[in-house]
Amino acid sequence: MRAPIRSKSDPIDTLTAREEQILRRVAKGLSKREFANELSLREKTIKHYMSEILGKLQARNRVEAAIMAHEAWRLK
Questions:
Q1: Which of 11, 35, 38, 72 is within CB 3.0–4.6 Å of 25 for a Cys-Cys bond?
Q2: Within a domain: residue 6?
Q3: Range of the domain at 29
Q4: pLDDT, mean of residues 32-50
Q5: Is a pLDDT exceeding 80 seen at residue 59?
Q6: Does residue 7 form part of some domain?
Q7: How many angstroms separate the CA atoms of 1 and 19, rounded?
Q8: Average pLDDT along the chain
Q9: Mind spelling out the 3-state secondary structure of the chain?
């Protein structure tokens, strides 16, 4: 008898609320400076969050992460 197939959760679902806010802005094409100002964060802090996001999504860069966000959230 085979073991039941487990559905894998989407890595995008592991993002914190702040990480999601940042990734949504990346997916819209905003620069780090633009959304750092929007979120009242320093660019260095944004860079740290992006490193965490890329690690969780196993994405190589911001573009790949943005594509994953578009696919997951059907962004326009």
A1: 35
A2: no
A3: 12-73
A4: 93
A5: yes
A6: no
A7: 41
A8: 88
A9: CCCCCCCCCCHHHHCCHHHHHHHHHHHCCCCHHHHHHHHCCCHHHHHHHHHHHHHHHCCCCHHHHHHHHHHHHCCC
- Rounded CA-CA distance 31/13 in Å is 23
Alpha-carbon distance 17 to 53, whole Å?
Answer: 11
End-to-end CA distance of the chain: 45
Does 3 map to a domain? no
Give the CATH number for residue 47: 1.10.10.10
pLDDT digits (tens, 9 = 90+) for 2-36: 544 434 578 999 999 999 999 999 999 999 899 88
Domains contained in the chain, number: 1
Residue 13: phi and psi, rounded to 5, are -75, -10
Q: Classify residue 63: in a domain, yes or no.
A: yes
